[in-house]
Every structure is written in C-alpha cells, then in structure tokens.
Design a protein that fits this description.
It is a single chain. This protein is of the alpha/beta class. Helices cover about 40% and strands about 15% of the residues. Helix 4 links the parallel strand 2 (about 80-85) and strand 3 (about 100-105). Helix 1 (about 10-30) runs antiparallel to helix 7 (about 235-265) and helix 2 runs parallel beside helix 7 (about 235-265). It is globular and about 65 Å long. It binds pyridoxal-5'-phosphate. Pyridoxal-5'-phosphate (PLP) binds near residues 61 and 87.
Amino acid sequence: MKNVPFLSFEESNKTIKAEILESFESFFDNGWYVLGENVKNFEQQYASFSQVDYAVGVSNGLDALHIALKSLGIGEGDEVIIPSNTYIATALAVSYVGATPIFVEPDTDTYNLDPNKLENSITSKTKAIMPVHLYGQACEMQAIMKIAEKHRLFVIEDNAQSQGASYNGKLTGSWGDINGTSFYPGKNLGALGDAGGITTNNKELAQKAAVLRNYGSEKKYYNEVIGFNMRLDECQAGFLSIKLRYLNDWIRQRQEIAGWYNEVLKNFSDLILPKVAENSTHSYHLYVIRTNKRDELQKHLADNGVGSLIHYPIPPHLQQAYKNLGFKKGDFPIAEELADTSLSLPIWPGMTIEMIEMIADIIKSFKI
Ligand SMILES: *Cc1c(COP(=O)(O)O)cnc(C)c1O
C-alpha cells in the first residue's frame, strides 16, 4: 500500500512549477531583492483577495501579529484576550509588546473563541481581542465585534490558518482593526519559505505597519520610530502572487477532501469530526478529528504509512515558556482536553478519494 504523508506539495507544485521558475528568473535578473515591485504588487493583490483596502507584506505570521499589536500602541500593562487553545505564536506576539495574554476557553464544537465567555475576562486593562480562526474555520465575528465595540476594544484577527474563510459572507482578515496572517509553506497560501502579511482598512495603521517592518523608516535613513527588520522578501512575494491565483481552487479541493472524510468517517466509534458553525465557512487548513485513544490511533496510522500531526499537544498556558504566568493543569480544561484528544489527518490539494478511503479503512481497522 502506498504511503500518504501528512503534507505533500507534489501536486500543487506541479501546477505552478513553470510559473515559479519564470518568476525566479525575472527576480534574479532584475537585481532588486528587497521591497520592490513584487512586494508592492503582491500587497495589492492580497488586499484585493481579502477585500480590504491595504495589505502589508512582512517576514512571517508571528511578526505580522507583533507589528499589528505594536501599531495599535498596545504594550506594557495592557491585556489582550486570546483563545486558550491556539498556536503559541498568538501568545508570543502579545508578550513581545510587553502585554499579558489572557486566555479564554473555546467553544467545544468549533474550537474557536467562545463569544459567550469573553465578557467575563474583560478588565480595565483589556485593550484588544485576538480571535484565531483555528484550523481554517471563521470565528463568530459578528458577536465578537459587538462585544469589542461595547467595551471599546481593538480586534486583531489571527488569520494565519484561514485565508479564504468567511463569516456571514465577510472574509476573515477583513473584520478586525488590523489583522495578521502567515504564508508559512504549509498554510493555505504558503510561500517557499517564511512570509506573512497584515490586512487592514485603516490607512494610518497600514502606514504604521509598513514603517515598523522597515526599521521604523519611511524615507531611507530617516528613522521615525524604533522599528524592526521584518520585511517580506521580493522573491517570496513573486511566488505568492502566483500561488494566490490558485488559492480559491486549492481551498475548494480542501473542502471537497473534508467532505469525503466526513462521509467515510461518520458514526464511527467515538470519533468526533469537525463541525462548522452556522454562518461560518471552513477553509480546512487542517482536518482535525478527536478520539480518547488519540495516541494509539496516531501510532496505528503511522504503522500503516499514514502521516498525522497533533495541533497542538500542549496549550500555551502549560508551556514551559509561560510558567511565569503561574497556570497549572486544570486551569483551562477545554484547551487541555483538545490537546489530549485532537489528531490532524492529511489534507492537501491533490489528495484523491482513494487516499481518503484508504485512510478511513486503516482507521476503521483500529479497535477504538
Ligand atoms: C502559523 C501560525 C502563526 C505564525 O505564523 P509563522 O509564519 O509561522 O510565524 C500564528 N498563528 C497561528 C494560529 C498559526 O497557525
């Protein structure tokens, strides 16, 4: 039987190889390697894709979130609400600006920030809410925006996993004051290396972000603020412009694959399949199932040549890096339960229904 890796670029790369090589050659011959036409063009294209006025290309997703927080003036003594079951980057960005991440538990069906639990965690120090559209599913943005407005809080979407998803027809990355996304290779829109982006409808914030990513400088050698070197590479911007044209098609493939999984895995033992909230769409960056025998099932899949990963085995509040926050096991039981039971199955453009059926047969041959 043929192995199925957790992630493969083989099929999607085939589609774009000629264009990528052509883009590389023109980038190489052009001789302008940092902040040039490729970045400018990609920013316009990504803003248009995201239905926002401005996009700013940066070095990676973590830096995008960091710059977003910084351009809002969030810092020392401030609190930022984030989900308890996110990737560590969301929390790190908050820590980088000197603010404190405040964890709020997710909804047990969607795994996204539960708007009903938000208000209990808002204090006089709260400055912003950072919803994470986890695994590719849009958060309940209308309810979150309403609470943010009521308490005069900024909203910064962590859109790293969900380019192309929407809530009530409005795209993720277009709701918040300023939002960050990641073009890490495995994300829905992935570069050939590290890259990230910021989206906003606010001209002033877009300008601040563009200045912050480039040494705090708008005019060369005139530095207005203490900025960073967090620029998007010209060659990556060129590659991203090409891949962006295929993004909607690749998301449709992800959704089709998720549909196959839903069909072949339904009503099997204690497996919990992804649930999509009303008014929300899922771009299936990841297809995450849950079972109490997660570790055994992962081993069984590996023994049969199928790759899988855990997103994520340890929630931020229990990470060694955050031991200073003083949390212990049991403090965020939903996040901990998800960490213990979640398993991500392979999902990538080019997967066939035969592969999905084979994976389902392997899962069903396991006595859960
Ligand atoms: C990938 C990811 C990031 C960070 O992106 P990088 O490009 O790896 O820095 C941030 N938040 C979430 C939820 C992510 O999945």
